[in-house]
Amino acid sequence: MYAANRRYEGIDQSSVDELSRRVNDGLIPKLSKLPGFMGYFLMEGGEGIVKSTTFFDTSSQADESTRVAAEWTQDEKLDKLVPNAPKVTVRKVIAHETKAPVLV
Q1: What span, in angstroms and rounded, lies between the C-alpha atoms of 21 and 29?
Q2: Which of 85, 93, 79 is nearest to 41 (CA)?
Q3: What's the pLDDT tens digit per position in 48-92?
Q4: Fewer CB within 10 Å of terminal CB in the chain, N or C?
Q5: DSSP state, residue 22
Q6: Which residues, listed in sequence order, are joined to residue 3 by a DSSP beta bridge?
Q7: What is d(CA 86, CA 89) in angstroms, rounded to the nearest whole number?
Q8: Mapping DSSP to helix (H, G, I), strand (E, B) and coil, where does residue 90 land?
Q9: CB atoms within 10 A of CB 25
Q10: Where in the chain are the domains?
């Protein structure tokens, strides 16, 4: 398993809710259709930072997710919400554990 980590800087704190909504409505559905998709997380990093992590089976699939995310950001004209290109790393996951959510 591989993780694509993206660190976005210069995010206006008042825009985080809108960014989150747009990611949930638009980006996550696109990423989840890619081969090898295993999960996506968007996290507040504080001080104008938002981070995302996407999990895929292979490093090339994780790299493709970064291309898709960049294309989506451009297509959605999010330059005011996301003023700077992210710092991206793709790394092999060497330990993990997940728990299925409990449905009530």
Answers
A1: 12
A2: 93
A3: 999 999 999 999 999 999 999 999 999 999 988 899 999 999 999
A4: C
A5: H
A6: 55, 91
A7: 10
A8: strand
A9: 10
A10: 2-92
d(CA 53, CA 66): 10
Both tokens assigned to 40:
């996506």
Token pair for 97: 């554990």
Two tokens, residue 16: 């985080």
Q: Is 35 helix (H, G, I), strand (E, B) or coil?
A: coil
Q: Which two tokens stand for residue 77?
A: 């004209």
Longest CA–CA span in the chain (Å) reads 40
103: pLDDT strictly greater than 70: no
Asked if residues 34 and 56 have their Cβ atoms less than 8 Å apart, the reply is yes
> What's the confidence (pLDDT) of residue 55?
96
Separation of alpha carbons 28 and 85, rounded Å: 18
C-beta of residue 76 within 8 angstroms of C-beta of residue 29: no
Q: How confident is the model at residue 102 (pLDDT cuts 50, 70, 90)?
A: low
* CATH code, 2-92: 3.30.70.100
